[in-house]
């Protein structure tokens, strides 16, 4: 049921989507999320190898790599998707939109929270890199190819390398 909610949400948000059937059959982000949901259940059951095998199969099919340890909320829209990487301890809340080439990565090689938290209704532009245990505040927009390594407040607009606020008061 959650996947159908996601499909409806994508149809509403993407002007290129002509039908629900098109979204179901042709959107790699939907396919990646389908496999992620299966892998996530197996991961929670501590069937780590099988969960990772499914996530790697999904990566092969879609070009989108979602670690089954990541926590993903409702209605994530991965548009185009190729090259997206979502790390193990990432948290993505509801109604997030993410374009191709986005990385939610880590700076550490330790077993702890090391990937970003993306709050509700954030837009992550194509190719942006969000690195480390940081929080991107709700309703923020991250520009294409920006590199974010520090938390940002809600309603932020960031761009550049390293990312800076683009919002004028």
List the secondary-structure elements in sequence, H or E.
Answer: HHHHEEEEEEEEEEEEEEE
**Fraction in helix:** 25-40%
Number of strands: 15
- Identify the CATH class: Mainly Beta
Radius of gyration: 15 Å
Mean pLDDT: 95
Poorly predicted sequence stretches spanning 5 or more consecutive residues: none
Biggest sheet, spatial arrangement of strands: 3-6-9-12-14-15
How would you sum up the major sheet? 6 strands, mixed
Q: What amount of the residues lies in strands?
A: 15-25%
Please work out how many helical segments DSSP would assign. Answer: 4
CATH superfamily: Hexapeptide repeat proteins
Q: Give the terminus-to-terminus CA distance.
A: 42 Å
SS-based class: alpha/beta
What does this structure look like?
This protein is of the alpha/beta class. The protein has one domain (2-165): Hexapeptide repeat proteins (UDP N-Acetylglucosamine Acyltransferase, domain 1). The chain contains four helices and 15 strands. The chain has helices spanning 2-13, 20-26, 28-44, 48-62; strands at 65-66, 71-72, 77-78, 85-86, 91-92, 97-98, 103-105, 117-118, 123-124, 129-131, 135-136, 141-142, 147-148, 157-159, 164-165. The chain has a six-stranded mixed β-sheet.
